[in-house]
Amino acid sequence: MTIGTEFLLDATDGNARAGRLTLPHGVVETPAFMPVGTHGAVRGLHPAEVEEAGATIILGNTYHLHLRPGEEVIRQLGGLHRFSTWPRPMLTDSGGFQVFSLEGLRTIEETGVSFVSHIDGSTHTLTPESSMDIQWALGADVAMAFDHVVPGQADHALATEGMERTLRWLERCRDAHANLADANPGHQTLWPIVQGGAHADLRRRSLEGTLALGPWTGLAIGGLSVGEPKPVMHNTLELLGPHLPSDTPRYLMGVGFPEDLVEGIARGVDLFDCVAATRNGRHGSAWTAQGRVNVRKAAHRTADGPLDPTCDCTTCGRFSIGYLRHLFVAGEMLGMRLVSLHNIRFLLRLTEDARRAIREGRFTAWRRAWHARYNPRGEVACL
Q: Rounded CA gap, 190 and 168, in Å?
């Protein structure tokens, strides 16, 4: 097992970056997509399937794992890696996004957030310190700081409140995590989250305050893909990019649609995560080189070819789209699993192709060609 955290930037092409992130459980080549294992499992998929699809890091959800089965259960069973049998690197979010999405079921105070469980109505409190305790018990390679997330359309006053509280909580997270790490250095690293909503001045202040509390082995950009227009996300990344340390990995939280990965990579992002791959897969929505395909459509009833002839996943290598449609119509869970697995592989292959293009100095041409295939009407205004 590799000890410690290190990031090496191998190549750049414009603002796009290719590198290697070394974590206690292995190496992650970047840019990379992290499948989301909310409850300690990528929904519907065996860990071996996710690994064979090319995933080198996955995400676990602190909020959900705290409520069920509880971090102490997971600690007693050897930590989240052993509990879930995932052998490679893992990142846990702080629980902040889930807690702040519980509108009407939570109370925000400076000490932390009290909330009502969506499972059984019980009351819980999550603080910067308890978030660190939970994530330490889970044992992920990367723990995320507990932050105050605001809606994408939050006004300046609300975004200021969230950004400033995130910085105050970051200092508490840093100190609490340092105390835990004293006993086992190299076991886990802590990454902060830059907030500020859609407001450029707040994003700059958040980044400056975050860097002042460092040094950090990674930086996350949060509070995007939460209802704001896509150009706002692009502008935020462009604003922050020149001021982010070049030797530090950059993680864009909760973003994982194909076009968002391509445009995030073009703006210097190294890591992504999103539940969309498996969520869409469970509803029969598949991503292909030519765009999105609704597997349920009657037009596919007698289609004998694969879902995506360019894809090397096990779904496309074995099954016809007509068979996949049959599985959905018949209510067979295999259909949901197969399309979810395809979507996971699609995103992982996308980041593999982007890495190769960056290292070969042809990322701009690759990006244009990708959009021309995936979105032939040319609706991506940022090109």
A: 15
